[in-house]
Amino acid sequence: MPVVAPHDDTIAPSGKFSQMLNKISGQPESYARKSAYTFGKTLGAGSFGVVRQARNNTTKEEVAIKIMLKSTLNGNEQLVYDELSFLTQLKHPHIVGFRDWFESKSKFYVVTQLATGGELFDRIVDLGHFTERDASLVIYQVAEALEYLHGQNIVHRDVKPENILYLNHEQESPIVLADFGIAKRLRSSDDLIHTSAGSFGYAAPEVLKGLGHGKLCDVWSLGVITYTLLCGYSPFRSENIPDFLAEVKHNNAVIFHEKYWKHISEDARRFIVNLLDVEPTERPSIEQVLQDKWLTNIAAEHHDVDLLPSIRAGFNAKSKFKQAIELVMLQNRIKRLQELDDDDSDDTDFEDVGSSSSTGLSGWGALSSALKKTQSTGSSSSTSSEKKSSDAISALQQLVKTATQNKERVLNHVEE
Ligand SMILES: Nc1ncnc2c1ncn2[C@@H]1O[C@H](COP(=O)(O)OP(=O)(O)O)[C@@H](O)[C@H]1O
Ligand SMILES: [Mg+2]
């Protein structure tokens, strides 16, 4: 059972009858709370399952529910307990709010405040206009969330665009940081974590080296996001960990190509180079980041040059690389989901209702047929019954739809 007890006021009325039914069906007691929600469309996919929109039938609040398959957690259940534990403790305008949790025999459900405005990059690509000032507003809010976390000796470890969400569709929508799936609490301010976890592309070199990392790994990720926000592509070219470590080794990897950077201030470049120092001890703390004059002053002066055309161009120029990453990631996901072993009789958790992810889909036809092929030649357990196989396919389809937008996490959970 999860180590965190839900607040009493988050428990939906379930009734003695459904509790009794749960006992008979072998479902955990908290499963009764599932009936308090009406599930809607799929919002996103991550490492262990999908996230769906839902409505609390009593309060009518729209929420997000992260559904994680226990079978794909593979002994890493502690990750879910830790995530719940963090979410229940944290309260900040730029951190996604916790609402509830429950579990079934086969899944964990984590209910949070709904962010309807979309993931950072999807939203920006959809915008009509994006300036250096807009970028600084994003970075400032994420930095404030990190300052709050670091103040409590919590390291997020997975700061990346997919975990940065706009709360609503308004122009001035606030941003929230989500996904505490691999966050860690340090024993002291300068304590180091020795287990590597993060996302390739955003994780700091010291995380990938496995020699110990602390709060400053989040500052590095913020540097990668700042660079990418301003030009539309990643500051690094490497496609694997050894190449990446070699690339950043001499602290001269960050290049500002004139074609994409000519309209961007010197201070923005200085800010990025500062955050992307290969040596964590040379990196600014999050408090120092928040006081940097690019964030506090300079960026605000750059509100007239629209960077979107060049961000789009940068984005397209590098999209081949992105597709390659997505393919590897997709194969990993398929492998994991072939272990899908569903035991909830009335299960529709992976069936979409209404429209699918806001992110849209490229190449869905090809992916879908590749998927079916893998499915039919896949593990023997998935061919045992037609019903199960079609459930698995629809679950896979849901995941793959949104998973193509995400990068694979580099996970290594050997507990200290
Ligand atoms: N509260 C939320 N509101 C809207 N969408 C969300 C919310 N939480 C997560 N999502 C979507 O689901 C995706 C996966 O959720 P996340 O918590 O990051 O899971 P994972 O740990 O598997 O990466 C996110 O990238 C985002 O697109
Ligand atoms: Mg995530």
Question: Any overview of this molecule?
Answer:
The protein is of the alpha+beta class and 416 residues long. It has three domains: 8-113, Phosphorylase Kinase, domain 1 (2-Layer Sandwich); 118-306, Orthogonal Bundle (Transferase(Phosphotransferase), domain 1), CATH 1.10.510; 316-344 and 360-411, no CATH class. Helices cover 42% and strands 13% of the residues. The chain has 16 helices and twelve strands. It has helices at 16-25, 70-73, 77-89, 120-126, 132-151, 205-209, 216-231, 241-248, 258-261, 266-275, 286-291, 293-301, 308-317, 319-337, 364-377, 386-403, and strands spanning 37-45, 49-56, 62-69, 98-103, 107-113, 118-119, 154-155, 164-166, 175-177, 184-185, 197-199, 409-411. Strands 1-2-3-5-4 form a five-stranded antiparallel beta sheet. Strands 6-8-9 form a three-stranded antiparallel beta sheet. A two-stranded antiparallel sheet has the order 7-10. A hairpin with an 8-residue loop joins strand 8 and strand 9. Helix 5 packs antiparallel against helix 7, helix 5 (132-151) runs antiparallel to helix 12 (293-301) and helix 15 packs antiparallel against helix 16. It starts with 15 loop residues before the first helix and ends in a 5-residue tail after the last strand. Residues 46, 162-163, 179 line the site of magnesium ion (MG). Residues 354-384 have a biased composition (Low complexity). ATP binds at residue 66. One of its GO terms (biological process) is filamentous growth. Residues 342-393 are annotated as: Disordered. Residues 342-352 have a biased composition (Acidic residues).
